[in-house]
Amino acid sequence: MNGLLLLNKEVDMTSHDLVNIVRRQLDMKRVGHTGTLDPNATGLMVMAFGKATKLVNYLQTDDKEYVLEMKLGVLTDTLDIWGKITKEEDYIKPTKADFKQVLESFKGKQMQRPPMYSAIKIQGKKLYELARANQVIEIPKREIEIYEIELLDYDHTIKIRVACSSGTYIRTLCLDIANKLDTVGTMTSLVRTKIGEFTLEEANTISELRNKQYKIVDPRRALSKYPIYKYENLSDIINGRKIEIYTKDDLVLIEVENKIMAFYERVEENIFKSKRGLW
Description:
By secondary structure, the chain is an alpha+beta fold.
């Protein structure tokens, strides 16, 4: 059995916990996912199992959408409400119009510094491991892009919807928003609502998974952003031979007899080699 499974991750559950649950429920050893969520975050996780795990590296770069809540005037070491408070200060609450204007300023490409409490590896160690050992290092900034940012609530809480590129840290975004308002800020909740074209509304609950009421997604749907080139000689693809393709794209999916077989990448003008077999 091969495919994708959309799940709504619950709070107080790690991404690896979810992998183990899927392994048990589907009786599958090969299970992966296309992007982690912190234990306190909830929302959409795209799980891959069987041969579909070969797609994980290609799907991890899909754009994401989140709904977050944040609090001004409070800062923690983890940049979310579950960390240790390191600063509290009084602030003048901006008007709704001013707050919206600040949000608008974040649209587009920009450089963002990942938080110290993250799984990024530097010098072979994850940042959160260094943070727990009280080792502070300079973290290089990375380019991200905010496509949409919308204020959903400003009366009872600060609630924001963000559509962004993969690799965007919402906790850092909350702090950056607060800094533009001359204060500090902390994320208080996070729900991932979209990965690529998959939405949270489509996701199965953990209960549905355990009760065998889940739906499996065809992996081809997750590959819609990649161009497909139809090829006739199956033996060439199975054996990973270089093939000649006339296309402007540098990375293509090879389809043989209506089945996606491999990723091929350009090595010369019209010559492509196998990058990843999918059979």
